[in-house]
């Protein structure tokens, strides 16, 4: 009797920067190590203190909370709050990764602001719209728990809340703006604005930026397609409205009241054209207060690849000016 054939070893079907791999048998392997490492300069965290908390025990989701040091207890000493969602193609990343941690340290220290950096469920284990659902859970936590946290009480002004995120987190930020409207968190927790940094978007029709993707780019069209295969629910195309909120299948947003928004794009990012189209449609067709700023010569995620660069300095100033301009808007 012939020996039974040995089962084939599972092999990698999809790989996202070595941080997550989808195997041929349907299992998922995740690395315990972050995909990106950045060093903190000496004293980079001297002006900020932080702690980790669980905000959704059911899904084992955490947030990292940052507050500037040396703020007084008077109301006029409190600073705005930034609810932040990290990038990673909806497949990888955590607010505890060094690059995202460094960026949130900068925002907390230099805006200054209380920064609440949220994790969310990742694909392919949890496909869209799981991340957006977790974003809504995070915002409800801001209203119900964070706003009553004694550790934040002498620093955070929850009447001045901004929602921000990069890449996948920028996409989540859009959906939070739509879901909660201009003041949907209630009278004590006011939404004043949204910051979308190179928000992750896709579509069936290729844009010029996607077709002309530079070799060696931080985010390539091939990577974007891989992410799409891993994050889209069964039967969905890249025009799925969650992923293409200004695309042909997306509902109109004329009736949605939204706080002002800032969209930041990079000249050499494959998402550049989609980000510009999104901002233009939101402003011109749907009547939203929407600013669009493009960073010449830069590529996707430049400020987290090198959080201490001069262009990252410029971006911090841009965000700070937006927050100052809108923190008392009605």
From TrEMBL:
It comes from the Eukaryota. InterPro entries: AB_hydrolase_3, AB_hydrolase_fold, Carboxylest/Gibb_receptor, Lipase_GDXG_put_SER_AS. SUPFAM superfamilies: alpha/beta-Hydrolases (SSF53474). One of its GO terms (molecular function) is hydrolase activity. The active site is at residue 167. Pfam families: Abhydrolase_3. Residues 82-303 form the Alpha/beta hydrolase fold-3 domain. This is Alpha/beta hydrolase fold-3 domain-containing protein. It comes from Oryza meridionalis. The lineage of its organism: Eukaryota, Viridiplantae, Streptophyta, Embryophyta, Tracheophyta.
């Amino acid at each position: 009797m012939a020996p039974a054939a040995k089962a084939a070893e599972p092999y990698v079907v999809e790989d996202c920067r070595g941080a997550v791999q989808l195997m041929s048998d349907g299992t998922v392997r995740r690395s315990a190590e972050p995909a990106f490492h950045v060093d903190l300069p000496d004293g980079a965290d001297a002006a900020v203190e932080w702690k980790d908390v669980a905000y959704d025990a059911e899904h084992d989701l955490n947030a990292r909370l940052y507050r500037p040091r040396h703020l007084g207890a008077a109301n006029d000493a409190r600073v705005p709050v930034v609810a932040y969602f990290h990038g990673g193609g909806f497949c990888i990343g955590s607010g505890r990764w060094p690059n995202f941690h460094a960026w949130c340290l900068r925002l907390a220290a230099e805006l200054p602001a209380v920064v609440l950096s949220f994790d969310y469920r990742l694909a392919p284990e949890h496909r869209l719209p799981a991340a957006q659902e977790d974003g809504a859970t995070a915002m409800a936590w801001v209203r119900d728990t964070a706003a009553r946290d004694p550790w934040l009480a002498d620093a955070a002004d929850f009447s001045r809340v901004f929602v921000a995120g990069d890449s996948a987190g920028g996409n989540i930020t859009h959906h939070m703006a739509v879901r909660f409207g201009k003041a949907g968190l209630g009278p004590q927790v006011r939404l004043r604005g949204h910051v979308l940094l190179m928000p992750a978007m896709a579509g069936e029709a290729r844009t010029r930026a996607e077709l002309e993707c530079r070799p060696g780019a931080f985010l390539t069209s091939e990577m974007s397609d891989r992410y799409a295969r891993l994050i889209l629910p069964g039967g969905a195309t890249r025009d799925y409205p969650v992923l293409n909120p200004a695309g042909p299948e997306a509902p109109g947003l004329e009736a949605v009241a939204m706080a002002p928004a800032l969209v930041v794009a990079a000249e050499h990012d494959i998402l550049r054209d989609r980000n510009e189209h999104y901002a233009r449609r939101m402003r011109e067709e749907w009547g939203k207060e929407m600013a669009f700023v493009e960073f010449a010569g830069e590529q996707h995620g430049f400020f987290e690849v090198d959080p201490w660069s001069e262009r990252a300095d410029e971006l911090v100033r841009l965000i700070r000016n937006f927050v100052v301009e809108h923190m008392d808007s009605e």
